[in-house]
Amino acid sequence: MVELPNERGHTAGMCMIGLISVLLIVGQGMVFCTEGMMETVMYVVTGSAIGIFTVGLLHVAWRTCFLAEELCHISGRYPDKKSAAQKAYEFNMISSCVCSISAIIAVLIWVILENPYVYLWTKGPVSNIIPYLAGFCFSKLIQMEESVLHTSLQIESMKNLDYGSGMAYNYFYGYLRLVLPDPEVGTPGAKGIRKRIETFMNHHRLLKTAFPVRKLFILIPRNLYTPTDLMEVSTDWHNSTNYWMEAAMSLETQELDRAGVKQRVYKNSVYKIWNRDRSTLYPVYVVAEGATPLKTFYDVIKMNPKMSRVFKNHQHEIVSAFYKTLQDILRDSDDCRDLCEIIFYADTDENQRRVNVARIILERIEKLTR
Fold this sequence. Notes:
Order of helices and strands: HHHHHHHHHHEEEEEEHHHEH
Strand order of the largest sheet: 2-5-6-1-7
Number of helices: 14
Largest sheet: 5 strands, mixed
Structural class: alpha/beta
Shape: elongated
């Protein structure tokens, strides 16, 4: 039986506490040897407060630098500048309490006695630097760097090991690669997406103009919601009963043996789209569907209270990583590159009204057929 790796314990934290203790003992010992017990107590209180307070100020400065970059990408990542600043300057509860207490102590020492920075400087170079080193180690122990922005930057730096990229790889190799290209030799009855579209057109006696783009359209809504029937999101907000899309029959099913499941069924739905602005007599046909991993991700956010807040805080980064990774995978795939069209769109407008996804699909079709 394969042994799974054990969960990480608290050894690193205990070592960090030991390092902090050693630093403080060294500093205390140097002061005690020359100035006695009372001055040692004063040194410990002042040094602890100033060390943590200074590190906290450095964290604020560090976050300000990253916020300057985030302000250049407000429209794609945040509702507004206030939200970006809130996510950048958010501290966890322990860090907020510790920094606040340290700041209060430092101010009281400055007001009642003397400038605490000057006081530490008078203790010599080694005793002066020790509180700052201990404060830095303590900030790591309580994870002072933790914030929504910090986690977002970590996600971005994971080089396709993040949740969004993982979903994209699973989606491509577990689904798109199986339904888009013509299957390998030895898979009787299976067809690629274009041959199944041609079969559909011949069966329903459709002209080429009725099915102008013979690809699979994958919809990636920024806020994740994709209904069971795309007709539900095919109206303008001011006319919610005038639907632009209607489900037609599905393409012929694809049956493949997969992971021990014999004749697993894969289906793709065809939709008819009417351009209500032009009052066209005939619809345009498309094969369209939402990205199913994102529907699962949407369900996780809605149904898992434990993880919903964490995922919701980083929802846009995860969706963006899914989209960019899927684009890269398709671009590098000779078999699937020209068989799929990804539409990443904002599914609500600036007033939080649902947009008409049929308009977005028609705009993409028009762009592809110019």
